[in-house]
């Protein structure tokens, strides 16, 4: 499958060279698109320089920080326009191991519409997370699965491969959420369209360099949106445009 790996970056100068090298080695036939939001630390320039050396890497420069979900929507739009058959999303801070990419793509080849690199299926792991973050993530995932009837253990995971034909059926402009909610909304959108979702176990290693951009606002956004989608779809029974 013609594959595009979308790497969103904000202030990842310390990680970009290593992640690009490892992605290119893990899936040499795939192309890579870095979506950078004007990182003041020069991530985009570095990505361009490293990309010119490695080949198969392009950089989409955006003027300012617009959020993770918005960066993926922009990257997916490019991928769909250019006719890629598989679109991958992953963090650029090495918390997602590029060596797991072939496994994700194999599951897509096997017929899945969305493959999630999952921390919460047997074999999945998060070796170095603080207990409070683990509890929040587990609770959030249970809440989303219950409220939405979503048959996914790790709906907030950000390591994924989408079949382009499925992604093309989701009106991305209508997807508003960011952060965790973006991931849940997209999984829910695939499930509502009858898509096949497969979870493959991965180890999520918290970043060693740089800082997370997640915030309390993103957690609250996810909780409120999931609650609203549940009310809208299960109580009001209104067919939504997107998810
Ligand atoms: N272009 C762009 N990139 C961004 C932005 N915000 C974050 N990123 C990039 O998106 C990736 C993830 O950002 P982090 O801030 O490190 O996220 P996290 O807290 O580790 O969250 C990860 O795990 C969550 C589940 O636990 C996931 O829900 C989430 O999608 C992500 O994978 C990194 O490559 C970061 O540079 C933004 O506004 N714009």
From TrEMBL:
Domain Glycosyltransferase 2-like: residue ranges: 5-167
Family matches, as Pfam families: Glycos_transf_2
GO CC annotation: membrane
Keyword Glycosyltransferase: yes
GO terms (BP aspect): glycolipid biosynthetic process
Keywords, comma-separated and alphabetical: Glycosyltransferase, Transferase
Entry GO MF terms: dolichyl-phosphate beta-D-mannosyltransferase activity
Protein family: Belongs to the glycosyltransferase 2 family.
Protein name: Glycosyltransferase
Organism for this UniProt entry: Actinomarinicola tropica
Lineage summary: Bacteria, Bacillati, Actinomycetota, Acidimicrobiia, Acidimicrobiales
